[in-house]
Amino acid sequence: MSVPTNARGPLRTALWLAQIGLPVLPLREGKEPFGNCPACTRSACGDRPHMKAAGPCQCPAPCHAWGAATTDPDVLTGPAWARAWRQAGAVAYHPGGAGLTVVDLDDAEAVAWARENLPATKVVPTTRGEHWIYRGATQSMNGVRPGVDVKSTMSYVRWRGPGAGTMAVLPDVVRALVVKEPTARRAHPVIVAMPAGGGQCPHRSPVYLERGIAMAEQRITGAREAIHKTVYRTFLAVLSAHGRCGCLTEAHSARLFTAAQAKGESARHCEDAWDNARTKLGL
Description:
The protein is of the alpha+beta class. About 35% of the residues lie in helices and about 15% in strands.
């Protein structure tokens, strides 16, 4: 796909970025995303991409901030986005959607800390500091230390140019910055459907249950895309098999939450996906 010759300014930049695999969206002056259209205001569309495992709605307008980021040239040049591009002051990209993480260093002290503690990688100068870009996605979190934000999944970053240097693999020290102790999850009581006659539940075989949980962890850990959907569907499968018989314990669900959070899901996302799966199954 070649960039249309009539594309100008932010749209031309966006189309070039989309060509190299960066999901993009327009920003207003002041580097803020465009507001939702009337159909999506206050989640009138029935979806909230920053919370639900199902992902953004299918609105053709550049709604839902990072959730609107796309590499589809037909969407970027379509009539639903035309007004936004005419008013756009800049272009942003969704780093997590391209398998990237940006360490946003907001001042000289933060830059000095990065140079002492992080491996060299591609560096993009910003107004007050630098963006250090790594290969690999993780959870986004602001204020991980003074002047340092981590932007990856469910976040956007203003495009400021290609930068310099060779992009390195996301180091463990950055992943550790966004790891918090798992949020205490409220207990979800499950009705235990015991077999007639008072016998033991057939799923209480340690081997059967362990194999199922291990496979669920592997499915989440091995996901390369559509992480939200994978987590939700995995939770749904586990609860479908074990949610009614009393096999699952808090330790089992904690293992699944831990696997999901390691892929960049927040504790709130895990809660929502778990609750949505239980609701769908009528638990």
